[in-house]
């Protein structure tokens, strides 16, 4: 079912050109990886724009072009004329190191991180090897690769949900977890409910939270969980 659905253009930012770069998994897969590395402590839309901003400044986003940049070049590109990230110095270092890792470990082809029907744990582990990437982003990266880009792994056990604000609210209202549940509680609840692929649960929960189950003025009449939901009004 998941893999039968057609491959669709994935929206990461509000910019077509930036999203085209991030969707170019066969030509410039490092853009997706570098965006994941940038995705911390700022809004995701802003973080995922950073590869495109580099491309605008450099005129190219090829690995050859990126490898020609020194660490201080990357620092300058990240900082000027306006900072691309809240933590310019750290993120410049992580960006530089990530390019280096892709060149050295993956022969400049970032798609080798996930190619070959690998286990979900292997792919997540490889993302965790990038400086600055923690379990949440590593799992999110694997989840996007499978769900949106239809990359097949040998299993999906290790891909967890991203317990964002919508997911937390919907899990709480559906009585799947207490309303003040911790991120770990949400993650383990999803593992218990759908151990084969826990991360599959965050997309419908997010959609319900965004469309109907809003913090205020929820629209239970239109929500497809209405018949089952103990909080329906
Ligand atoms: S039925 Fe209402 S309370 Fe329950 S998940 Fe849907 S919108 Fe939220």
Summarize the model shown:
With 233 residues, the protein is an all-alpha fold. Helices cover 50% and strands 0% of the residues. It starts with 15 loop residues before the first helix and ends in a 22-residue tail after the last helix.
How would you describe this structure to a colleague?
The longest helix has 19 residues, at 88-106. The protein is an all-alpha fold. Helices cover 50% and strands 0% of the residues. It has helices spanning 16-23, 29-38, 44-47, 50-58, 63-67, 71-79, 88-106, 120-128, 135-147, 165-173, 183-193, 202-211. The relative contact order is 0.10. It has twelve helices and no strands. Helix 8 crosses helix 9 (135-147) and helix 10 packs across helix 12 (202-211). It has two domains: 16-147, Endonuclease III, domain 1, CATH 1.10.340; 165-222, no CATH class. Iron/sulfur cluster binds at residues 170, 173-174, 208, 212-213, 218, 220, 223, 225-226, 229, 231-232. Iron/sulfur cluster is lined by residues 170, 173-174, 208, 212-213, 218, 220, 223, 225-226, 229, 231-232.
